[in-house]
Amino acid sequence: xxxxxxxxxxxxxxxxxxxxxxxxxxxxxxxxxxxxxxxxxxxxxxxxxxxxxxxxxxxxxxxxxxxxxxxxxxxxxxxxxxxxxxxxxxxxxxxxxxxxxxxxxxxxxxxxxxxxxxxxxxxxxxxxxxxxxxxxxxxxxxxxxxxxxxxxxxxxxxxxxxxxxxxxxxxxxxxxxxxxxxxxxxxxxxxxxxxxxxxxxxxxxxxxxxxxxxxxxxxxxxxxxxxxxxxxxxxxxxxxxxxxxxxxxxxxxxxxxxxxxx
Length: 262
Description:
mainly alpha; Four Helix Bundle (Hemerythrin (Met), subunit A); Arc Repressor Mutant, subunit A; 3 domains; 67% helix; transcription regulation; sigma factor; DNA binding; RNA_pol_sigma_r2
């Protein structure tokens, strides 16, 4: 028969831990018996880690990592706990365990790297914002966060902006709740070819304005009105071949003027 895991409640864990802490103080650190007693204390008090982890609501992907980090905090608390000072172990361990978990979230779960100062600001702002929303039923303003946190207005603004780097959304995610099947990537804008011609138009405009009126009319009919050379010839009373020569000469003049400006 495989061994069965015995679930111990907080009250029983407290009662069983007291003699073990007394025994741990009598043992030399590094011995096999010391490790055995400490490991037993870790198993008995894992409920502290699980309870602390629930406060942070970790996602399924990092739940095990949070428990592992919390266990490191529990071991640190066990190593430092002195039962002769009259403190309850649970009260002593919770801040240490929670601190390790907070550092884990602060240092490893941000999607965008931001300075630690802004991470700390974000944590403080989130705590105060949640408390405010629960009490007032609305999100706090920047001024109200300044009043409640003691931070400067610039620090509050930077902290709120930094919070946007905590998580990311995949470009393959749906653009909105609809049936069109479009993703965020489908809604991203592209380069407008017309914008690339802006500099050219600004540069060419004074050169065109300096041309004789007939050449300007010829260019307008060909490139603005999209007329063929034959249609232009009929309109001006000249042959299509003459129109072609005029266009070639006019465009060569513009190219030469552009080359002189380069």
